[in-house]
Structure prediction request, 183 residues.
Amino acid sequence: MDPQDHERFRDYVESRWSALLRLANLLTGGDRHEAEDLVQIALMKALARWRHIEDPEAYVRKVMYRHQISRWRLRRPHREPTFAVPPADLGVADGTSAADLRITVGKALAQLTPRQRTMLVLRYFEDLSETEVAAALGCSVGTVRSTTHRSLARLRRLAPELDAPARTAATAPSSSLPKGAHT
Prediction:
């Protein structure tokens, strides 16, 4: 690798590390170590082909998606992530704050299967169309639709407060259930 390519790769990693780690964190269900491994694997694969990559962001994300798919296809025993339980004396939480919502969404996503979580992350966090998700995961559009439908239904059962009808547009944070995602 020549110095110019090396510099370009280093700049890319420095500028995109946080965003890639957030995506990996969602794909792995909140396991920070697994997320870091996923990003590092994707970056190592990108580094090997760096001079031939036209769109580094798309390449690295696709490697992350495919590697995560390979992980859940191996059908390893499911490891439940652990979350610290907040102390009861922190005060009364009304459930509408952005922090409470992120915790609720994170816990609910962690309880989904890796396949369900991947579908929802690609569809709503990455904002890919059903066709793009199908292409990225190597399945049919119908599979994306049915899996997304079942995943959202399960997410609503796991965290019914995410779909509370009492929320208004003024109080509901934008990171609650996706707009138009109805079961």
